[in-house]
Write a structure and sequence with these properties.
By secondary structure, the protein is mostly beta strands. The chain has 2 helices and 9 strands; from the N terminus they run E-E-E-E-E-E-H-E-E-E-H. This is NUDIX domain-containing protein.
Length: about 170
């Protein structure tokens, strides 16, 4: 069975039931034929290069030792690249001067697909309330993790012929 997002139909308010649809068990409405597809949510990410270093940020809700790339949800009527640049500005106040796609990565544990860009940025860092801290890391010192944005970091390092020294998350 697919992971239930809704218990009741968002179209007619009847209870959803597990039904076979397109060869898979899905939560669906027998009254109006609504199907909960469980499509992944698009997330944009930015590996930010600032003054020759990579900016890693810590979300205010995360443990003190955990830093990652800038991320956020893609919004209506914007391209993934525009979304990554917007998130960079919203979360750090930095301006993008150059951007290029690193890649697209599945993140099944959160039912997301991450679209990651390398963004060279300028300006003065000023964190939004979403972020508690940041650090600037020499590219050769980066230690990617084996999921989500860590995979994008590893691809970015490999493309620059820098060592990919994986960190194991616990």
């Amino acid at each position: 069975m697919s992971k239930a997002i809704y218990q009741f139909c968002p179209m007619c308010a009847n209870k959803l039931h597990e039904l076979q649809h397109s060869g898979q068990a899905r939560m669906a409405c027998g009254s109006c034929n609504f199907v909960q597809w469980g499509n992944p949510v698009p997330v944009v990410a930015a590996l930010v290069e600032y003054d020759g270093k990579v900016l890693l940020a810590r979300n205010a809700a995360w443990p003190a030792h955990f830093f990652a790339l800038i991320t956020g949800f893609l919004e209506r009527n914007e391209t993934p690249e525009q979304g990554a640049i917007r998130e960079l500005k919203e979360e750090t106040n930095l301006d993008a001067v150059e951007s290029s796609l690193i890649g697209v990565y599945p993140f099944p544990m959160k039912n997301e697909v991450i679209i990651c860009y390398h963004i060279k940025a300028v300006g003065q860092i000023s964190l939004s309330e979403e972020l508690a801290d940041y650090k600037l890391v020499e590219p050769a010192e980066l230690r990617p993790w084996r999921m989500g944005t860590g995979l994008a970091m590893a691809d970015w390092l490999a493309a620059r012929q820098l060592p990919v020294n994986w960190i194991e998350l616990k």
